[in-house]
Amino acid sequence: MLVQQLYSSNFIEVTRESTAREVMNCFLQEQQDLACVIEHGQLLGIVTKYALYRLLLKSESLDTTIGSAMIQSVVTVNEKDSAYDAKDVLVEKGIGHAVVLDDRGNVTGVMAKSELIKGLITSTHIVANRLKTLVDHLQEAVLSVNLDMRVTSLNTSALTLLQLVEEEVMDRSIAQFSSDLSAGFREAIQTEKSYIKRLYFPNATTIASFIPIREWTSITGAMVVLKDVTDYENVAMELESTKRIEKMLDSALELAYDGVLMTDMDGKITRANHSILSFFGFSSMKEIIEQPIDRIIPEISSEKSILQNESVEGELVEIQNKKAILSQMPIIQDGKKIGAIFKLIFKQLDVWKDLLHHVDRLEGEISFYRGELLKASMDNDPFGLLISKSKKIDLLKKEAYIASQTFSNILITGESGTGKELLADGIHQSSGRPGAFIKVNCGAIPEELLESEFFGYVDGAFTGAKKGGKPGKFELADGGTLFLDEIGDMPLPLQVKLLRVLQEKEFERIGDTKTRKADVRILAATNKNLLEMVQAGTFREDLYYRIHVIQLRIPPLRERLEDIPLLCEFLLEKFKLKAFKPMEGVTPKALLRLSQYEWPGNVRELENVLERAFHFSTGNWIDVENLTLETAQPDIPKGKPVVEPISPSSDKGFNPKELMDNTEKSLLIQALTKADGNRTKAAEILGISRSTLYQKIKKFQVKEKSHFNVDP
């Protein structure tokens, strides 16, 4: 907080020739105790009430000039100084006021100690509120108690961890909710030392940091920070599982009768079995580990190394004048080659031929576990598939998570291909609702089948009905989430029935008289402007406001072009998991070309462009010539509201003034129509004054409709 936010600019200005009477009157009128003596714009000094009293005691005349009572050594502060610096000046000088100057040395006001104290208190409150907001948004649970072991504060994460509400916890004994926490607090207070221990809760494993709270020199309580390490433990279990797989692989290598060895990307041997040692006459594994494969087996030249060939399946080779069958396969991790496996069958080839296929199956298992590990890492983040480093998407994910914890319906808007379904799936996963996530594309189901799809039907409800009936989407989503994609394509009759279900939480199957209850949370998505559809009468207004409780807009790709390199990297890794193809990435020139494109199809279009380039590229990099982009793009993004200007009456060419007038007239008519003729509202919509609105109505000769509510 700066001095310019605290000082009073209403100060008394006098000269040395001012009389004591004049200054005294100013003090009484302004109710101030200090006046600034200023001549020719320069501060000469100050006169205080007490200095004036002393002057009157000496002269005993109110008409005496104040020059002799002026204090020349004035304490000043700059208006851009911080409040804390000003506080230090007042404390150091032991005074109650300071004159405030600007950068040019002109007096702009006077700051009193009381104003400074109020400002510092306000600043302290602001800092405290910011600190509370920060703590509330921490992922770690934070909780504090006083010396009586009663809860004094806790954040949202702590309430979630304890599965309680704030009113049940505040000022209550912590022992009522957790004996482990109570014991930890007691130890921190008694020992006056911080310590860390592991605590277990029904839904999480945490690392608890207990810290005594000191105020001045006394312990007044304790606090604990609980970090959820459940995910870390899961990762540790996955690593342990990987170690077990590695042990299994080592055992499989030793059990193999034929020779098996592995190399890294540099062609150095990292693993081998004893069959390899006996075949080449080595006595210990140390003799070949970290050695280039070309040196140990010259017959496998660099031309056959993993750097050159993808794989070799059953090639007949001659090694040390002995015939053998060589098989080779790259080792892929996260879409990148990290080495190779070589297998040599050189004994009883006919008997051990099936072992070659056995090792192949082992390699398939390695690829499977690698894919499962990648899939598991994505499952830890419900919004992990929304790949982005954009601040807009980060904010969207935070808002989506907050929205997921509510019970309200959510409307997801955005252009086609932006990832509305991915966001909806993440919201369902974050919500903790036990039911299923059911998706319905309102634009892909024929209108005559929509009602049966939503509500189901009973046996014999209509010709061709499935025997025994069929549950609808609402039944399937009971206790979970129903995602209505392209809700703008839903016909009006079905909108009425959907509204009834949302209001009453019950429905009937087609052909049934039994009413069924449904606890369903609605997530709707559209790339259309529903508000314009409401005004046009193609979408029900009451349904719009029922699903428009919380709106989340996914920005199009052209608004977050910084995500294109990250998306390219992710998509290429995705393609390489499906097809083993050496693809390093996208060249800088290709990335520049991608960033210059408008992307009307957004991320879905980017994926299609990259997938085609991935398949048709003959090199290790995707370059500009591999990209196939649409040459003609729409001038206005799909889904964006458009104001259609009236076509110019003249066809003699482009007339800017006429086009501007026609567009302005079109906007004026739209505003009056939207306001139902109310001119005050129409002016507010257009952001102009009412008199300007009347001038434009007269200028463009806009006539009122009979149903307009014209203001008097």
Which helices and strands occur, and which strands form pairs?
Layout: E1 12-14, H1 20-30, E2 34-39, E3 42-48, H2 49-59, E4 76-78, H3 83-93, E5 97-101, E6 107-112, H4 113-136, E7 141-146, E8 151-154, H5 156-162, H6 166-169, H7 179-191, E9 195-201, E10 204-215, E11 218-228, H8 230-255, E12 259-264, E13 269-272, H9 274-280, H10 293-296, E14 312-319, E15 322-333, E16 336-345, H11 353-379, H12 391-404, E17 410-413, H13 420-431, E18 437-441, H14 447-455, E19 456-457, E20 470-471, H15 473-476, E21 481-485, H16 492-504, E22 506-508, E23 515-517, E24 521-526, H17 530-536, H18 541-547, E25 550-553, H19 564-578, E26 585-586, H20 588-595, H21 602-616, E27 621-622, H22 656-674, H23 679-686, H24 690-700
Parallel strand pairs: 1-2, 4-5, 17-24, 17-25, 18-21, 21-24, 26-27
Antiparallel strand pairs: 2-3, 5-6, 7-8, 7-11, 9-10, 10-11, 12-13, 12-16, 14-15, 15-16, 19-20, 22-23
Helix pairs in contact: 1-2, 3-4, 8-11, 12-13, 19-21, 22-23, 23-24
